[in-house]
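ping. complex inputs:
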Amino acid sequence: MQIVPFLIIFPLVVSVLMFAIRVNKVRNFFAYLSAVIIMVGAGVLTVQWGMQGFAPIALQYDATMVDHVILAAEIILMILVTVLSFKYKKYWVSLLSILPTGLIAYFELNKPALEEVGQIYIDHLSILMCLIVGVIGGLIVVYAVGYMHGYHHHHTEFEDRRYYFFALLFAFLGAMFGFVLSENLLWIDFFWEMTSICSFLLIGYTKTPEAINNCFRALWMNLLGGCALAVGIVYFGYNAGVVSLHGLVDLAVAGNKVAVIPVALIAFAALTKAAQLPFSTWLIGAMVAPTPSSALLHSATMVKAGIYVLFRLAPAMAGTTTGFMIALIGGFTFLVTSIMAIAQSDGKKVLAFSTISNLGLMVACAGVGTAETIWAGVFLMMFHAISKSLLFQDVGATENALHSRDIEDMHGLLYILPRLAIFMFIGIAGMFLAPFGMLISKWAALKASIDERNIILVFFICFGSATTSFYWTKWMGKIISASHLQEKTFKDITKKNEVISLTIHAIMMIALCVLFPLISRVYVTPLINEMFGFGENVLPDAILYTLIVVIVLVFAVPFFAHLYSKHAKVNMKLSYMNGINTGDNRKFVDSMGEEKTLWLSNYYMHKVIGSRKLMVPSQIFTVAVLLIMLSMIIGGVLV
Amino acid sequence: MANITKSPWLLHYDGSSCNGCDIEVLAALTPVYDAERLGVVNTGDPMQADIFLITGGINEQNKDVVKQIYDQMPRPKVVVAVGVCACTGGVFKDCYNILGGADTVIPVDIYVPGCAARPQAIIDGVVQAVALFQQRLDEHNAQKRKEA
Amino acid sequence: MKLGFAYVLLYIVLAPFIGGFLEGLDRKISARMQRRVGPPVLQPFYDVKKLLNKQTITVSTSQMFLLITYFVLMVLTGALFFYGADLLMCFFVMSTAATFLYFAAVVTSSPYSSAGAQRELIQMMAYEPAVLLTCVGFYLAAGSFNVADIAGGAMSNIVFLPGFFVAFVFILTIKMRKSPFDTSASHHMHQELVKGLTTEMGSRNLAIFQITEWYENVFLMGVVGLFIVNSNPISIAVAVAVILLVYFLEILIDNSSARMKWQQMLKITWVVTLLAAGVNLIMLMVVR
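pong. complex structure:
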């Protein structure tokens, strides 16, 4: 399987190339070409693996050389972080990089005789991740070419460093492939650090004080997770004599005490990556980055790395204190951040909060760790990746045209920028409306948490889904309301490549919705099978048929209703404004006898439930939970 | 022929009245007179109203308002002027800003006299309006059939 | 299977008549409570008949399309329920239907209609946890989300679910747009928002809205009945009695309470849900 090293190394090579080419047109051409090659590569990997029978494959290389290269690279990353943190006077952050790197280096040089296992592992889950990274990543690169052009056109105050931006995007893609395909925990650690640092550099792209501040916050939180990861790996390596992910999971499932602490520490690391409370603030701050990086790193793929690790650990966590801790944190994050999302009117902020919230639900699913919840979690992940990527890109394109990404300014977007509004509508519908899969995943998650008698999680899901629909419905309503604006004030300046990416995303979204039962049967059930060793069809036939009826009706009804109402004879009337409507439903006569423009706004309740009010208490609560639970877990093993 | 006499929904608009007639209009809805037993609902929304109940005269400020509300009502519709001010302008007739009764801006069908109009009279006006309401629908339907 | 389809057919044909009749009773009883004679029991049917005979008007051309979608999805909700399908799916479809009602109200960009719609959205947020928890309760009591299985048990589910019943009846006040919580549509002569989210719905559109409400009420009453019905046929008679009792209770609440602000509504509903359904849930999880 030559394609595996190719997928990891090729993006890194392209990254160097991007950095070297300073002519925009040439670089854009190579960016398109490489994006297509990466997408094709992910496809080829899937096909090759499929031809070998869809079975898990462990690949073993004679990789002493690679180990050394990775160690060297890790030290280079450490130096980079140290230099930057001294440059911006955040000295202590460098410690969080020096410590784990030192620990890993020490371990590499003084390692015990380790059991030989494969370094690469390919199964349903990693292929799924590869497809998400490859396809969505490739499309976002295509989108970014057009977007960054417009971005620097509008924001002349920022230095045009597109070579740097694209270099980082591709470096990130390589790291992500490496991360999801690796079996060796040391490799996983390296790629983990690399994604953290790519994210850090991308957040700081504009070099404004706010961006610098936010990027260091993201850095220290992610590096803290990296520390936990490194400690967990080294502890496990010394005690068990093996550093493979599946070795860890197998030991933990067998009930070996050695695995308890590493599982807890790695799960903790995953919480930081998935931006769960108390670490959520870094993802909110990350929204200062240009939109393609928000779409790629901060919603569609990088944060999913945390989820991926938790899914891998799920069988090990089921029924343990660690599992309970993870489920509690995830469920709590799901509810609280969805409440905070209500108070936001900045489109990207809403997306950020809802990303954290949805990740929370996936984390909770992993924490419960049964076949049903992982099934639900995998679907949540797929739907979330596509729809969030679509939404981020769409909000970015809308911002370029509308000069604002405030939801209040999107009033009547359907009539101002129809194309972008329809994409936005599809994306939001995918996040919460029947029959899109989010709902059915929620169904499965709820069922499983009842089966597991996890009362707290049941409450979190019930209340959280109420608050989730609130902010999405509010947003959708804004888009379709009749516009306040009289004439075409704004022009749709979306570039062709942006539209291509958006269209493919929208098609994937609808296809996923329609093919949902099929994908469940063909792909996700075998995935669960692999993980838990028994085949269970999570989706009962009765639900399946109901679902098909609902899918058909939800698509057919609006269609026919539209046909009917289009031909119905109606008389248009002015909207009711106590008889002082001036004639176009947009203005009324005020008490001075003059025309006044109508302006409608949504409820945000930010005084009651704003993030300023809720964030700190919930951070305190989750820190307390983490401290207590972690000391319980570690104490339980050591004492 | 569809019978629609059993569900007259009212829209009550106060022009420039002294509020006497308005109190009597509301009195018609109280337990003593209970206009709802005839199916009367006080909607407050022109889109949903069948009978436009107007009290007080028309002045410079509200003439456009009355016209617009009248236009917003779906056909068939009936206008009832309640009280002498709505009928002719009443005691305010010669005021500098009063144009006159409701019929100065919209076609009025039923005039209910009184200062203030008594609830019995108002209900009687509504009952007459209902008959007219039915008649207009029938005429409209007959014409539509003829065209077809 | 065949029985399920028969129920669905019965529901689709009879629900508007039952719903309209119940609303007629509602108006009559309300009038009596206020010492009035009140309109005839068939008044709601007269109203809808008149609405259908008036000139078709609208403010926004897409409103009718959204309302029809709302209507069909609500009928689908009830149909799934009476077929005996998954209860949780029924409520998911119901919330999708409610979303379309919201769209139908905001699409006009009319001030009163939009303000009413915002309130409707808050109402949805208030009642949804209780609705989902009711499903959870049924699942724990009967071991299945399937309405057919829940209704076919040996014992009435209310034995296990008294707290859930309280929570559900509580939010029923919101769903049926009854007084302390009737903030969004102003059904009952409260006119500070004119007619709330129905302000811009006249003639045929209002008729669609009205008929959908009837379908919805029958579905909700069906859920109330589900608490009672078991494999014994007599339980159906008991269920009908309980449904009528609950309906009467709602009318009584409607006529004897002043309205609340949305903050109070949200707070009280969530607290009641947490307390009634929560305590019940914890006890149930221990028992089962």
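The mean pLDDT of chain C is 89.
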